[in-house]
Amino acid sequence: VWKVLTFKLSKQTFFGVILEGNVDVSEDLAILAALFGYKSIMVLYVFKQRKLQTLMWKLSDFTKLGKPPHFDELKSMILECFDEGKFENRRRLNMCIRYHLDIIEYFSRSTYSKRLNDCFTNEMFIHLTTTGIICGCLENQIVKGYNFGTVLHILAWIGALAVSCFGGQMLMDSSLSVADVMYCSKWYEADVHLRKYAILMMVRSQKPLYVTTGSFGVLTLPLFV
């Protein structure tokens, strides 16, 4: 009871001081946004532990192909899959196709893209919303002539947003670059059947992996701009 009463009195005092003009509303709004964003992300992290565990286990799975799924490894395999004879090239290309399917799980109901979105979409939406509110409040303080620390603060938040968007852009670019690597390989030296398989793999690569951010769209560099 005393804790509830103290909270009520503190809240009334807080808003009373704001109305009197003794406290900068933008500063307090930024603090509240940061606290709300931090608490919300932590709660979502706790509730999504099982999904994160499943995703990390899948990304570290060595059982299917002897190595975890990775786009850079796939690109190296593609560039080397047409360097030998007909049967060896067929075996290597089949390996590349299986490896690519293992990454994107094209025929599965639960693709990597969906798993990533299930784990990070809500968190990234809260992160972007919180960052927008805080940056707006900090810009208001800069306009009012606050010290240089405010500038460093807003640059730090913008930098955190840039890192997130850059990571999302790298994921999309890596998934789309598989088609370019296949085109740069020696597919022209293969027989007709292997060329058809190569074309199908290039077409399949046109569907990128990405992370969404709710109403903000896809997490890429254009979103940061």
From TrEMBL:
<keyword id="KW-0675">Receptor</keyword>
<keyword id="KW-0812">Transmembrane</keyword>
<dbReference type="GO" id="GO:0005549">
    <property type="term" value="F:odorant binding"/>
</dbReference>
<keyword id="KW-1133">Transmembrane helix</keyword>
<keyword id="KW-0807">Transducer</keyword>
<protein>
    <submittedName>
        <fullName>7tm 6 domain containing protein</fullName>
    </submittedName>
</protein>
<keyword id="KW-0552">Olfaction</keyword>
<keyword id="KW-0472">Membrane</keyword>
<keyword id="KW-0716">Sensory transduction</keyword>
<keyword id="KW-1003">Cell membrane</keyword>
<feature type="transmembrane region" description="Helical">
    <location>
        <begin position="29"/>
        <end position="47"/>
    </location>
</feature>
<dbReference type="Pfam" id="PF02949">
    <property type="entry name" value="7tm_6"/>
</dbReference>
<dbReference type="GO" id="GO:0004984">
    <property type="term" value="F:olfactory receptor activity"/>
</dbReference>
<dbReference type="InterPro" id="IPR004117">
    <property type="entry name" value="7tm6_olfct_rcpt"/>
</dbReference>
<dbReference type="GO" id="GO:0005886">
    <property type="term" value="C:plasma membrane"/>
</dbReference>
<dbReference type="GO" id="GO:0007165">
    <property type="term" value="P:signal transduction"/>
</dbReference>
<feature type="transmembrane region" description="Helical">
    <location>
        <begin position="151"/>
        <end position="172"/>
    </location>
</feature>
